[in-house]
Amino acid sequence: MHLVMIGGSDAGISAALRARELDPGADVTVAVADAFPNFSICGIPYYLSGEVTHWRNLAHRTIADLEAAGMWLRLDTTARRIDVAARKLLVTDAEGKEELLAYDRLIVGTGAVPVRPPIVGLDGPGALGPGDGVHLLHSMGDTFAVMRTLENTAPASAVIVGAGYIGLEIADALSVRGLAVTQMEQLPEALPTVDPQLGALVHAELAAHGVEVLTGTTVRQISRAASGQAARLAVHATAVDGTAVNRGADMVLVVVGVRPDSDLAAEAGAVLGLKRAIVVDNQMHTSLPDVFAAGDCVITHHRLLGKTYLPLGTTAHKQGRVAGENALGGNRIFAGSLGTQVVKIFDQAAARTGLRDHEAETAGFDPVTIESAADDHKAYYPGSHRITMRVTGDRATGRLLGMQLFGHKNAEIAKRIDIAATAIFHHMTVDAVSDLDLSYTPPLGSPWEAVQMGTQAWIRDTRRQ
Ligand SMILES: Cc1cc2nc3c(=O)[nH]c(=O)nc-3n(C[C@H](O)[C@H](O)[C@H](O)COP(=O)(O)OP(=O)(O)OC[C@H]3O[C@@H](n4cnc5c(N)ncnc54)[C@H](O)[C@@H]3O)c2cc1C
């Protein structure tokens, strides 16, 4: 059995590792367009900040580790065409030399590419790019380009376009490096994937660390600054009321989301769905015979929403593992995502899982969201922090639908959201969360865990309504 994976990031490598684990005799080839297989691109912001001291440290595994697991790595090898009928993949190497790789089963893990918003100066003739200090950020190649700008031009200021979780991580990273950072976001509040009440807390944390946060601000144009200006670039934006917002900056990072990299599969005839992501079933089969797909290039099966597009590293790992197993003839099901995510913003963290009100309404629920706060551990023991919680449940059934948390980075926000994710995964009611036997000692918790206090507040307040 010869398996070929296209892509050497979370999905492709997870698939290859699982296949080799299940069948040490399987012939597994991974074609990777660049020379950086299995790098943790989620860690890029911490390399840019200097907290991760060398880019090589971002590797989940080294090339030697991957080869020791028994996969053939074809680096700097780009897949160009899938011949489904002949089960052959046309690839080119770094010099453009073509080769046909025969496969029994193929796994497409081409991931995503950054969205290029319609900003004048980003595209077309005379477009600005990394050499001018204007960057998009997704791959290790993009990271090296950003690092060259940071190290070779010693920028004093940066504009970050977008205040989603990656934009926030970069604002944190560049501030740690000593740059003056302005963040521009066209939506009304920072971190639009959480409710604006928590977004406002994120906004305040950015501001407390000197980041100028301009929400409701749409960037229209990036240009070279006129001579005599202190900064190298000029960023022109419009506020919601139509007034012009102009800022100078030595570098600009555009981080406004990703779109699935699905062209290769589409050209081979694969059916595409939402946002042009490759349609897969819950076993990661595409519509093409013997072709599986996983990761940021595919639609996401969501446990509450059905089909959506929710590109996350955790999901890519799971889907890759399922694809690797099933490509060998297995029967594994991808159980579905809840969109569980967490982000550190300076000294605070924000997290969410499941649905917010408007998403729950779209899915046919009758949601109520109740906000409350609790200490991460007994306040009499030094170093406790308040956690703000927003719990969403279904009014009719009492089912827990979602949770959002905000609190200090040492307040176990990530693991606390995982309690909620586990409860939602298993269809628990909000009330039943109080029955969970969770741990307690005063320096680390409370007899009622903070998440349980949040769910109890939901019960109290909804009964009152
Ligand atoms: C800065 C940053 C921070 C992030 N932080 C988090 C986080 O904290 N938590 C989280 O869950 N997620 C995070 N993510 C998202 C996460 O990194 C992605 O969801 C995950 O990497 C997707 O993995 P993938 O394998 O599907 O695709 P990708 O990582 O996009 O990789 C695609 C792979 O395919 C290769 N490829 C593409 N086309 C071809 C071709 N034609 N031939 C050969 N190879 C090809 C590429 O070279 C690459 O190896 C972050 C992303 C970024 C950019």
Strand order in the sheet with the most strands: 3-2-1-7-18
Bound molecules: flavin-adenine dinucleotide
Number of helices, counting only DSSP H or I runs of 4 residues or more:
11
Overall, the morphology is globular
Low-pLDDT residue spans: none
Helix content: 25-40%
Taking all Cα atoms into account, the compactness measure Rg is 23 Å
- Number of E strands: 25
Report how far the terminal alpha carbons are from each other. Answer: 61 Å
Mean pLDDT over all positions:
97
Q: Structural class, from secondary structure content?
A: alpha/beta
Largest β sheet strand count, sense and barrel closure: 5 strands, parallel
Query: Which percent range describes the beta-strand content?
Result: 25-35%
Describe the structure.
- The protein has 465 residues and is of the alpha/beta class.
- It has 11 helices and 25 strands.
- The chain has a 5-stranded parallel beta sheet. Strands 9-16-10-11-12 form a 5-stranded parallel beta sheet.
- Helix 1 runs parallel beside helix 8 (313-327).
- The radius of gyration is 23 Å and the shape is globular.
- It starts with a strand and ends with a helix.
- Bound molecules: flavin-adenine dinucleotide.
